[in-house]
Amino acid sequence: MNGFSHIKGVITLQLDRDTCIGCGICVSVCPHNLFAVEQGKAVIIDRDRCIECGACALNCPVKALSVDAGVGCASGMINEWLDSLQFRRKSGSGCC
Amino acid sequence: MISTQLTFVDTLGSWKARWGIGRMSYLVPPGLYAIGTPDSGSQVVVTANYKMTYDLVRRALDGRNLWLLVLETYGINVWCAAGKGTFGTGELVRRIEKSGLGSIVSHRELLLPIMGAAGVKGVEVKARTGFTCRFATLRIDDLPEYLDAGMQANAGMRELTFSLKERLVLTPVEIVSSLKSGLYLLLIICMAAATAGGLNAVSGLKALLVCLIAILSGAFISPLLLPWLPTRSFAIKGAFAGLLVAAALIGLLQLSGTAPVAALLCGVTAVSSFVMLNFTGSTPFTSRSGVKYEMRRALPLQGAGLLIAVVAALIWRFQ
Q1: B288, B297, B299: which to substitute to probe chain A, counting the most A Cβ within 10 Å?
Q2: Could you read off the pLDDT of B45-97 as tens digits, one per residue?
Q3: Is this structure's pTM higher than 0.90?
Q4: Which residue of B lies nearest to A4 if distances are taken between CA atoms?
Q5: Which is nearest to B161 in space by CA: B225, B227, B82?
């Protein structure tokens, strides 16, 4: 995505190039053009563009990719934390 | 067969959803719909049952003949539903089976939004139903061009943008949800301002105004100025905007004295920073790890800022 990026150096995306078969599915599912296939293997072009949506890890047929995906918004995470403390009854009225 | 023309009621519904009115129940029944007069060779486009999405998709496909498979995402948009798993492999397989899609079309291809890939495992869908998932475009409006190009996506269709207009349409729901979440705190602050040291309704109203301005700083001003506010951190962007807004308020209200200045500087900055941090949930380029990183550092500071503001305001009131 041009001109926009978030915090650098915190992304949890991991690519196991030995396992990778170069099928290119990660290229087609990534919403941020993170991947390319070079010499039969996937490469990560720019780690810091990753938003950890998990599409690549989910769709990789050989599980060469892993990432800590999940709710990515602050309010969602605060709600998760509050639920874990059993601070409130789990309400279905909000988004997450 | 469904219409591809959006009516006034549809537009009004979208506007209301943008303002958070009835947003959690703005949906259509899931299932297979026909656009135009599709036959067994027509393409199948898959989407979520959030009515705003559904409306935009059918409008974009005006003049074409194809099938629209609407998944049950409980009225949530594709991206969030994919993250939660409702726009997912299981639901897609279920919907294909329930609609009897296999006996309606002779081909075995589905067109999915790229945003849905976070929830749909293409290889598994193929194994379970025989249908191949093609992740088409990011934006609904690129679908016609994608279809015309023989289902080829160009670079632009795979590139996310976040223009001023795109940021602007996201602000109403941020404002409304901030007000909703902060309602109790807001009331407490205004009651305290109106009653501390004697009944003073004007003080209460002034406090309310300051709180509203602080929220707007984080939910409206900061998102609009996003690319120009300093650093990559949303909390810092919000704090910076808040600081400027606080300084402007101090000048406008001609406040002097340590207590009132401290109250406004700390309070408005903290609130603006927190509300802007929440905007990460509406942006297409922030990562879960990035938000975690920010929250760990920003939340304690924001809490401290708010506390200092409250203490300073009390001191000011009782001076």
Answers
A1: B288
A2: 999 999 999 999 999 999 999 999 999 999 889 998 998 889 999 999 999 99
A3: no
A4: B285
A5: B227
Residue B117's identity, in one-letter code, is A
B286 to chain A, closest Cα gap in Å: 5
**ipTM above threshold 0.95:** no
The reported pLDDT for the residue numbered A89 is 54
Please tell me the predicted confidence (pLDDT) of residue A92: 44
Residues 6+ apart with CB under 8 A from B83: A53, A54, A69, A70, A71, A72, B118, B119
- Rounded to whole angstroms, the Cα distance separating A64 from B196 reads 62
CA-nearest residue of chain A to B161?
A1
- Asked if B179 and B215 count as a contact pair (C-beta separation under 8 A), the reply is yes
Rounded distance between C-alpha atoms, residue B100 and residue A56, angstroms: 29
| Interface residue ranges in chain A relative to chain B, Cβ cutoff 8 Å | 1-8, 10-12, 25, 28-33, 49-55, 58-59, 61, 68-78, 93, 95-96
Alpha-carbon distance values, A9 to A50, A72, A74, B174 (Å): 11, 17, 19, 28
Indicate yes or no: CB of A31 within 8 angstroms of CB of B80: no
pLDDT tens across the length of chain A (96 residues): 556 788 888 899 999 999 999 999 999 999 988 999 999 999 999 888 899 999 999 999 999 999 998 777 787 788 777 777 765 555 444 555
User: How high is the mean pLDDT of chain A?
Assistant: 84
Q: Do B117 and A70 touch (CB under 8 A)?
A: no
